[in-house]
């Protein structure tokens, strides 16, 4: 009986060894475990167009042993930062162009008012004609005062 148990033990050990080593009866001698998939971003950020809100919401950073993979996370954050800076610069440029266009429109409006002869009324309801008449009245009095 001892020999029977010893032979059975050797057969079981050999079968387990062959199964682990890859010769488990599939005939091809292939790998037991499939190749491990790399943990990378499933949906990389689009390179051919600016990022949108949907791109940022769909972004899922790959995990590592102690958090996120630094290289992929840094790349994604650098890209987002660069695009935000580019948009801020474009907004500032457009705001400056708008301010210049508004200033030019105000300047053209004032020029058109001066050319058409529209004169702003002064406080007290006096126009330029009444002011000239008042100056003419004061000149004879001054000349009479000097002659006397």
Keywords:
mainly alpha; two-stranded antiparallel sheet; 148 residues
Explain what you see.
The chain is an all-alpha fold and 148 residues long. Helix content is 63%, strand content 3%. It has a two-stranded antiparallel sheet with strand order 1-2. The termini are far apart. The model has no long low-confidence stretch (mean pLDDT 75).
In terms of quaternary structure, the protein is: single chain
- Across the major sheet, the strand order is 1-2
Number of strands: 2
Helical segment count: 4
The main β sheet shows up as: 2 strands, antiparallel
Class based on secondary structure composition and strand pairing: mainly alpha
Strand content: under 5%
Which outline best applies? rod-shaped
Distance between the termini: 162 Å
Task: Write the SSE topology.
Layout: H1 2-21, H2 53-58, E1 63-64, E2 67-68, H3 70-116, H4 128-147
Task: Describe, in short, the structure shown.
The chain is mainly α and 148 residues long.
């Amino acid at each position: 009986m001892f020999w029977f148990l010893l032979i059975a033990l050797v057969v079981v050990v050999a079968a387990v060894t062959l199964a682990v080593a890859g010769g488990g009866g599939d005939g091809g001698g292939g790998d037991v475990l499939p190749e491990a998939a790399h943990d990378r971003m499933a949906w990389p950020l689009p390179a051919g167009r600016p990022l949108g809100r949907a791109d940022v919401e769909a972004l899922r950073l790959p995990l590592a042993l102690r958090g996120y993979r630094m290289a992929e996370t840094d790349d994604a954050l650098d890209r987002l930062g660069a695009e935000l800076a580019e948009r801020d610069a474009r907004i500032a440029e457009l705001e400056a162009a708008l301010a210049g266009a508004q200033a030019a429109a105000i300047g053209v409006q004032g020029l058109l008012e001066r050319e058409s002869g529209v004169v702003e009324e002064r406080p007290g309801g006096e126009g330029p004609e009444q002011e000239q008449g008042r100056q003419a009245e004061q000149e004879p009095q001054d000349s009479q005062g000097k002659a006397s």
